[in-house]
């Protein structure tokens, strides 16, 4: 019989300092007998991107991590519009005034604000910058070897792959896994918001302005700033070769050229972004994993590395933070026995991600069926295609995502274990 050694003391290496890595570091630092090191490739922890939505699911986990009160800046998104970008027709409006018992309103904030709030709660000495992981090597009972670009080598009992959608940890431990360009390219910028709102007062409200294959998102993010995130879809068979990087600077002309059929005020707003301020993000996705752990419970994935859904729900930072929280709870519950804690992490998080994959496949089928009712992609008018694209009220209940209470999820898992 093989007797597994239960490591009461655990050396954990977290790869990546995004929301997943930082929240894992915060949560693990609070449990006994765990040494945590977080390795981040960047020289300075600085989020690329622009804004980020913090809904109830994210607030719930931020509360549990003790970070919620540190995140104080943002624009309350009590109204969200969907408009036809060519005619200005309001196709759909969501109004959700914060209920009285709801402590924190949904907000759109700057990504840097979330990041600095999380960093403020990571104990000193945990984060190591300029440490780009190039590979991990399974050293069996000795642990996992970490090889960094600077030539240094480390060893850990447990490696947490929080290194995002292009994860080196995942690509080493799951060598068959592949992500592919979805066809969607996103350009994002932050800018002073008063002059944008002067073009059309509807820009003061968070909203999507649509064409059938593109949209432009406008949202204030607090502190006088706002965010424009513009998306276009191109056939991935033709365009995927150039779409390998993330957060690449692109010219104004390049971005604006995709939105020439939009209303003049939308085009003028795009033109307000300064040369050099646009960043391009090519959306990649990959299939569902059958397990989030590998190498005999010495490797675990959290956040985007574990579910390459290309930001489909606009809540990936929330999911990443929930992962970090559950991983720490599971380790604490089983006193750092990875052979019991990691299967529990898998059992809680894997079905949740499966449900997301299933939901997206269903939504795609529904859109295709609606398009068929309008005579197919060729026959449907611009306005019909925009209406089909915008999912109207009466759609599926999404509270399992946006209202997820990860503390209650953990309590239910513990109750189930106790019941046997
Ligand atoms: C257009 C868009 C809009 C989005 N909007 C929202 C939103 O409104 N709300 C929301 O919650 N989510 C949103 N998301 C999703 C969210 O950005 C991600 O899900 C979230 O950032 C995932 O966090 P993470 O920590 O897993 O990965 P990341 O944020 O990608 O962080 C990974 C970190 O790992 C580091 N790293 C990578 N490789 C290495 C290496 N080899 N060695 C060392 N370090 C490494 C990176 O530098 C980075 O700091 C959006 C995503 C997109 C694309």
Automatic annotation (TrEMBL):
Any Pfam family hit: FAD_binding_3
Keywords: FAD, Flavoprotein, Monooxygenase, Oxidoreductase
SUPFAM superfamilies: FAD-linked reductases, C-terminal domain (SSF54373), FAD/NAD(P)-binding domain (SSF51905)
Residue intervals of the FAD-binding domain: 11-332
GO terms classed as biological process: secondary metabolite biosynthetic process
Coiled-coil ranges from the UniProt annotation: none
InterPro entries attached to this UniProt entry: FAD-bd, FAD/NAD-bd_sf, FAD_monoxygenase
Molecular function as annotated in GO: FAD binding; monooxygenase activity
Annotated signal sequence range: none
Homology family: Belongs to the paxM FAD-dependent monooxygenase family.
PANTHER family: FAD-BINDING DOMAIN-CONTAINING PROTEIN-RELATED, HYDROXYLASE, PUTATIVE (AFU_ORTHOLOGUE AFUA_3G01460)-RELATED
UniProt protein name: FAD-binding monooxygenase
Species assigned in the record: Podospora didyma
């Amino acid at each position: 019989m093989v007797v597994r050694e239960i490591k009461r003391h655990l050396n954990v290496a977290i790869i990546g300092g995004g929301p997943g890595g930082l929240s894992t570091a915060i949560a693990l630092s609070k449990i006994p007998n765990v040494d945590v090191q977080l390795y981040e490739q960047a020289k300075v922890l600085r989020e690329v991107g622009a804004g980020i939505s913090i809904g109830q699911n994210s607030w719930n986990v931020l509360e549990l991590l003790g970070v919620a009160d540190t995140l104080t800046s943002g624009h309350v998104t009590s109204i969200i519009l969907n408009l036809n970008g060519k005619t200005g027709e309001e196709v759909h409006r969501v109004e959700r005034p914060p209920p009285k018992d709801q402590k924190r309103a949904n907000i759109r904030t700057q990504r840097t604000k979330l990041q600095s709030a999380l960093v403020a709660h990571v104990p000193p000495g945990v984060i190591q910058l300029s440490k780009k992981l190039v590979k991990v090597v399974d050293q069996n009972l000795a642990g996992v070897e970490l090889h960094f670009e600077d030539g240094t080598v480390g060893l850990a009992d447990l490696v947490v792959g929080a290194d995002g959608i292009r994860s080196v940890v995942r690509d080493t431990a799951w060598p068959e896994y592949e992500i592919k360009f979805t066809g969607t390219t996103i350009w994002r910028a932050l800018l002073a918001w008063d002059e944008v709102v002067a073009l059309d007062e509807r820009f003061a409200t968070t909203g999507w302005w649509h064409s059938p294959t593109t949209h432009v998102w406008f949202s204030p993010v607090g502190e006088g700033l706002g965010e424009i995130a513009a998306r276009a879809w191109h056939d991935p068979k033709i365009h995927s070769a150039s779409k390998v990087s993330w957060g690449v600077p692109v010219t104004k002309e390049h971005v604006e050229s995709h939105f020439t059929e939009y209303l003049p005020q939308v085009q003028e707003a795009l033109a307000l972004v300064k040369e050099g301020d646009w960043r391009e993000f090519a959306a990649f996705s990959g299939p569902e994993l059958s397990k989030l752990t590998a190498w005999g419970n010495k490797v675990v994935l959290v956040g985007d590395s574990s579910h390459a859904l290309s930001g489909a729900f606009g809540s990936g930072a929330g999911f990443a933070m929930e992962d970090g929280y559950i991983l720490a709870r599971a380790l604490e519950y089983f006193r750092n026995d990875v052979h019991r804690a990691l299967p529990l992490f898998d059992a809680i998080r894997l079905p949740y991600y499966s449900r997301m994959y299933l939901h997206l496949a269903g939504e795609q089928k529904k859109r295709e069926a609606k398009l068929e009712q309008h005579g197919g992609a060729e026959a449907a008018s611009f306005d019909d295609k925009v209406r089909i694209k915008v999912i109207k009220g009466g759609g599926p209940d999404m509270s399992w995502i946006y209202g997820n209470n990860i503390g209650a999820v953990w309590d239910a898992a513990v109750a189930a274990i106790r019941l046997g």
